[in-house]
Structures are given as structure tokens and as C-alpha cells.
Amino acid sequence: MGPVCIRKHRLNTVGKPLISPGFTLLEIIVVMLIIGLASGLAGIMISRGGGNREMKIFTKEVSSVLRYARNRAVAEKKIYCFVINKEEHTYWVFSEDTDYRNVKTVLTKPIPEEIQMSLNDDNEDSPHVEFLPRGSSSGGKIEIMNEKGKVVSLRINRITGKVDVEEDQ
Fold this sequence. Notes:
four-stranded antiparallel β-sheet, single chain, 34% helix, 29% strand, 3 helices
């Protein structure tokens, strides 16, 4: 046998051939490092898109609150008002009797810091939308914008009081 055959058929101390059917510890560690780096990069890429996800969730929440206010106004025969408080970075809903004597706060919620919300670009201290007992409203367009500049609009129909969500391009 020549030198090639000796290398192929190395023997252990007992005289049996050495066969390596598995992976070495070094190979397993290298593969685990590659998997760890890939999953870490995937996590970073997913978290970068998180701002849009939070904006979608917030937009759905606000549109639900607007629909709730309209439905309660019709059911209770009261005026419901949706107000954006820019100073406190909150929005809230209150109800009042049609004679404007009894005012009751229904809910107050914060606006996330990375999101701006405005109604028809009003410069008022307290922009608001009223929902009337017959289902109509004062109407308007609420714009929700994130820090990346993406804008989503909520249009409130003046006649029907219905809320439509539109993503601006």
C-alpha cells in the first residue's frame, strides 16, 4: 500500500479504522454563530418597521372611538364630542344633553409621542368633531402623522357621520 492508502485507512489504537460520521464541535459552533447573527439582523429589520405598525394600531383605535361616539349619540339621543387637546397631547370624548346643560367625560386617551394628530389643520386650541343625535356630525378630516412623515386621514362625513380611513401617498 502506498501513502494514499495509509491516509484513507488510518487505524485507532485497537486496530479499527477511524471513521468520522458526525460534525466536529468547531463546525457546530460556527453554524450556531451564523444562525445567531442572522436572527439578530432579522430582529433589527423587523423592529424598524414597528413605527408603521404602531401608527396602524393607533389609527384603528381613533377610528373606533369616533364610530363609538357616533353610535352612542344616536342611541342615547345626546351630542357626543371628540376633542383633540394639543397641549396635553391627548384626545377625549364627552357627551352632553341637547340643551347643553349636562356634560360628561366619556374617555380620555394619550396620543403616542411619535405621532401627531390634527383636525383640518385648525389652529384652534381645542379642535373637535360633534356627533349629533340624528347620526350627522360637524364633519372633518383628522390627519395622523408619524415621525417618518407617513400620513393617514380619517374623514368624517358631515351628513352621515360615518368614518373612512384613507392612507395618503
